[in-house]
Amino acid sequence: MSLAQILDLLELRAIVESLARFPILFIFSVSILLSIILGRSLPRIIRYFTARFSSKSTLNVYDTLTESIAGSIRLAGTFVLISLSFVWIEEKYSRLHAFLNPFVTLMAIATVAWACSRIFRQVVRIYGIDLFRRSGRQVDDLLLVFETFVNIVIGFIAALAFAQSQQFNLVGLLASLGLSGLAVAFAAQKILEQLLSTIVLYLDRPFVPGEYIRLANGQLGRVESIGLRSTKIRTPAKSTLLIIPNSNLVSMEIENVTRAKKVMVMLYLNFTKAIDRRESALVKQVISESTNSVFGIDPGSTNVAFTPKDAEKYERARITFFILGSSESSIALRKRLLELANKAIAQKLETQNIGFTTDDPTVYVESPVTL
Question: What is the pTM of this model?
Fold first, then answer.
């Protein structure tokens, strides 16, 4: 066989191999495109099958839970489908698969974990609070602690899932580090105490950089940074920098001045018919009892002012009170409790044949607490 014939055969073989690979790339590209389309339509697809094969109450639960987290579901569904699409190039394009697959898998697991966290938060805020109240238990910030704990568990499971997908024995590594770390623990007890205190500060978040706090000795300062071992606090008068070990801060009583704020809530009730003085007194009593029983509302701050239609009749009521909270999550929890209180108010007034409508949306005005 001549050299020209050999070259012709090699060229023919290369063409055949490229033709054999082309369908794989085409199928992979189409699969990626379909993943993006199906991922963006995933909430609607799930809703269609839910409406078709389940009861109306189940559909209402689905709509309530996914109303504000549809974006997270779309993102998680898109990356999961894209991750599954990589099976097409696993054999023919093993190097490309080995390079891209870890990133895609990480995004798929991370977005699924984020979506699970958002769904759990919705379940707690919508159904968990109501369940606690029906069982006669006080709803307080312990519910937020439980929510944080579940999020940590979800994150840990996601880390294990990613390690397993990459054939990395994370559990074995942690176990080996635990055994070998016992000897180091005694030698570095003080350092470990500082690190654990730092973890506690980051998880509990009694303060964050930028907030003003007052220490146990009365010293007021602005938190500049939270380091691995210590926290730096800038004093306002001398502008000096206090460096306090995190282990001391964990056990110290600290007053967070920045979070000393309250949110004024203002809502209006428009009565379907004019009410008399007796009915207005009943409305005021029902509203005061319902709001004062809600955890996080400033006791005694509820004020009900009626707009008179004439000397003996009232057609509108303006309700104002204050919500106290230390963080955005706690404020959001109290707003959810307020929604349940509004439903209770409506039910009680309906039994007295007092109907009303509310202006939408409810007005929330943040105001600092006077120190």
Answer: 0.53
Across the chain, which has 371 residues, the per-10-residue mean pLDDT values are 50 52 75 89 87 83 82 89 85 81 88 90 77 61 70 86 77 58 59 75 79 84 83 83 86 80 78 83 82 69 80 80 67 69 78 78 62 48
Closest by CA position to 198, among listed 212, 206, 145: 206
263/257 Cα distance (integer angstroms): 15
In whole angstroms, give the CA distance from residue 369 to residue 371: 6
Structure tokens at 23: 């369908």
- Most distant pair of Cα atoms in the chain: their distance: 116
Q: Tell me the C-alpha distance between 161 and 252, whole Å.
A: 38
Strand 230-234 relative to strand 220-226: parallel, antiparallel, unpaired? antiparallel
Question: Measured between alpha carbons, how far is 171 from 286 in angstroms, rounded to an integer?
Answer: 56
Cα–Cα dist 73/271, whole Å: 40
